[in-house]
Amino acid sequence: MEMKKYFLLFVLSITIFFFHAYYTRHAIYGDGNGYYSYAQALYFDKKLDFNPVYEFLGNFNGRTGIFSRIFWDTSYTETGVIRQNPYLIGTGIIWLPSMLFISIINSVFNLGADRFNLIYELGPGITGIILVISGLYFLEKYLFNFFKKDITQPTILTLFLASNLLYYTAFEPALSHQPAFFLVSFLLYWTYKLKPKSVNFLILGVLCGLLAITRIADTFLLIPVFWQVWKARPSLKHLYVFLISLFIVISPQLLNQYLMYGNAFSNPYLTGKSGIWQFNPIHLIEFLFSMKRGVFFWTPLFLVGVMGLIKSRSWINLFTVALLWVICSSWSSYLSAGFGQRFVFSSIPYFAFGISSIFSKLNSRKSFYLISINTFWNLLLLVGFYMLKLGK
Length: 392
Hints:
The chain is mostly helical. Helix content is 66%, strand content 2%. It has one domain. Strands 1-2 form a two-stranded antiparallel ribbon. A hairpin with a 2-residue loop joins strand 1 and strand 2.
């Protein structure tokens, strides 16, 4: 049953994804186009030359006609030598194996598809689906340390059906949220019983570095991970190994920023070019309860998770979620596009702990009601979300 449910979730997700891509004539949307630009340039051009992919994305022939999938400034800066792409490079790097895989399929079956064919967009989407399903697998393995299997299994299924996990796994899986979710889930599982060996801290540096160049704000979600690592009593040597491997992995992003802005430490998310960071108490409330992508309005299951974290006295997990709430709600685009509040997507492992805690206190009938109500609400919002899209 354990592996069967993951296989079924994969089949469901991949089926929806393929039909969705066939209908829209492309498989990457929104911010994903920025990450895809990196993958295209690195794989096909072997350098950060965005000219070919920008030409394609800027004049895309979709289902409704020709339109631009680019919504950011693509000009050269005064000090840069490559065109601007404000997104982090990590997701594009993670997608490179999928580009190779699609190229092999293209060659073996003699499909004759060029680099901008739809099949190359399917690769990153399939990667995203695999990463989320794998992340759920490691999340359940992590939860096994605290809860019985009859608690963790409904938790995983409820998360998939009653949260925006469903949308960002099956409908729009080619974003940075999927690899970030996997990294947080895997790190929680892997570091829980971490042995203080140099090779483990080498791997830890690589994984933390990948998260940093994928979604920089999500690095705050590593607080519980580092707490688990600290309990393993690492030595100074382990710290050096960690820092060296961390620096090596984040160096492509530093080089990217140097080529783009003339300064390795200039990032548009920190300089105000891609949004402004400003604390506002009103934004704190809207981030949670707004009808326009408020966390608890769109996914009340996460409120159940918060209640569970409080009841189980899981203070470090609660603090981490609260910190992400303050950080994300302070950004000027805190209610940006997408299904539900996607900025908390990578924190789902912490909500999962709280949800499991609540399930452990409920009988089977109450658990069924909780699952059914939240799933119905999520599917209702999903239908409404697409009805609004089709009505435009």
